[in-house]
Amino acid sequence: MAATDPTEAPPDLLSPPQRLAALAVHLFTASGAALGFLALIAATERDFAKMFFWLAVALLVDGVDGTLARKARVHTRAPKLSGDVLDLVVDYVTYVLVPAYALAVSGLMPHGFGVPAALLVCVTAALYFATTDMKTEDLFFRGFPGIWNVAAFYLFVLAPPPWIGLALVVALSALTFAPIVFVHPMRVKLLRPLTLAALLAWSVLAALAVWSDLRPDAFVIWGLVALALYFVSLGLFRGRNLS
Length: 243
Known about the structure:
Blueprint: H1 16-44, H2 48-72, H3 74-77, H4 83-105, H5 114-129, E1 141-142, H6 148-158, H7 162-175, E2 181-182, H8 192-211, H9 218-238
Antiparallel strand pairs: 1-2
Helix pairs in contact: 1-2, 1-4, 2-4, 2-8, 4-5, 4-6, 5-7, 8-9
Catalytic activity: a CDP-1,2-diacyl-sn-glycerol + choline = a 1,2-diacyl-sn-glycero-3-phosphocholine + CMP + H(+)
Keywords: Cell inner membrane, Cell membrane, Lipid biosynthesis, Lipid metabolism, Manganese, Membrane, Phospholipid biosynthesis, Phospholipid metabolism, Transferase, Transmembrane, Transmembrane helix
EC number: 2.7.8.24
C-alpha cells in the first residue's frame, strides 16, 4: 500500500475536480487496452502495419500516463484503483498478447511452430510480469523485459528465415530469466541524453517502417538494427552485477 501523502486531503474531503482528474488518468491508462484490441483486429485482418500503428499509440499512452498519474496524485485521490495493476494488465495485452498472436498467424515461424512459439511468449512474459524484482535499483530491467511488441516489430521488418525467427523467439524467452540487464530508455540515468536521442531516432525510423507497410528502405533497416545494438549494449556496459 502506498504511503499517505501528509499534504493531501483525506479522500472524503477531495473536491470533485480532483477526483475526476485522478479517474481520468486511470481511464487514459485503460484506453491502452482498447488500443490493443484495435491492434488485435488489425492482426486478424493481416494488416500488420496497422497493428503496429495501434501498438505504437498504446506505447505512447504508456510513456506518458505515469507522469500524469503523479501529477494527479492517483494513489491518494483514487485509492480504490491500483494504477500499477492496471498498467500491468494493459502492458500484457499490448506488449505480449497481440504480438504473440501476430507471430502465430503471420507465417514468420516455421510451419506448425507459430502457435507453440506464441504460447512460449505468453507464458514466459506472464511469469516475468509477476516478478517482484523486475528492476534493479538503477532502473534497468532484469532479464528480457517482455517487450514482444518491439521484438515482433523487428521480426516483421527484417523477415528472417522462419527457423532463425523461431530461434530468436526461443532465445529471448530464455533471456527473460537470464542474469543480464536491459535498459529502460526513459528512466535509466546512464547516458540518458544520448539514450533519449537514440529513442527519438528509433521512433522516427519505426514510423517510417510502418508507413512503408513494414517494407522500409535499407537505411531504415540498418538504422533500426544499429539502435537496437546500442540499447542492448547499455545493459552489457552496465555489467552483470545486479543490485
